[in-house]
Prior knowledge:
By secondary structure, the chain is mainly alpha-helical. The protein has 17 helices and six strands. The protein has a two-stranded antiparallel sheet with strand order 1-2. A two-stranded antiparallel sheet has the order 3-6. The longest helix has 25 residues, at about 55-80.
Amino acid sequence: MKKINRVDNPGENTGTMVGDNSNGVVIVNNGVPFDQLEPYLHALVARDLERYTSEARLEANRRNDEFICAFISSLKSEGLIDDDTLSVFKEPSMQLDFQEAQKGFIRSGTEELKNRLTDILLRRIRCKDNELLKIVLSESITVASKLLTSQIAILGLSFACYYSRKRISNVEDFIVYCNTEIIPLLDLVGKKLSDYNHLNFTGCSQSTVMRKEIEKTFAASYIGLFAKGFSKQDSPIGSDGVPLITRYPFMFSRCFTNPDLFQIRIIDKETFDKTLVLRGIAPEDVVIFKDAYFNQQKMEPADVKQYILKWVPDMQRLFDYWDNNSIRFMTLTSVGMAIGCMFVESITKEKFDLGIWI
């Protein structure tokens, strides 16, 4: 039987004990104090590093040191250094996740991958109760090491356009969204069919026969922004015969696409539904409001595209890319959404709650 060497804490029984076995290390405690974290992380891949020879071993050790240093620095900057937070390392799954990230960076050594894997690990450490998200983040560590930036940018563009919705109040907000989130991704996305095939192969996406129309996606996400409007004379009539715009003026505004007309002022469906309740709209008028919101003021997809290009001419690049690449037939998996979401975060510096989707 192989002897197991242990490094014991001679003080209180709360230190780190490391044992060497055929798969790496064994941790026998409640976690890792921050001041003991660096040697602990080195121990996690010590046996793997022994497998390299000559110059490859020197480079592998250098990359290992670089990754651990970057990870510890990120923990400090994010304030994730208390014992309770680091107790996550008592879990075998967390140890394996870190080992996988270390090995991924040792294999590649790129700055982008280092930052990407560090971000995933930090999110994995913060994830306490969502077991599915833990699994997805673990898989994301493995998969991220197998993807090019151009392929990850495809996931980011799909996520930004099809899965997420910004808090937009007016046309100016939409212009900022396009210029800061969509257009920067267009500078990075891959254009080869092999990029999409590889995303399918790595479990980030699936190809479907149903084409996603980007105009319809924007129109559904920001219903009130793309309203064709109506005159006061043509405004919907309430159940008592009084125009809704007269009885509920707070529900209306000048039309975003034509200031000579009026529209129901709320941008998205969820806020619209909540407002009907919070504002105490009469039940018989709720039905009329919904018909006006979803049908009467609904804009045709071709007109949606026209206004987007009027506001942000550079968005023609998005429509061209969408029409000429397989992104229009792509559906993201949970892993694809996680990686795509985090890539968008790296562009916009805005944080998303992955628990909304996973």
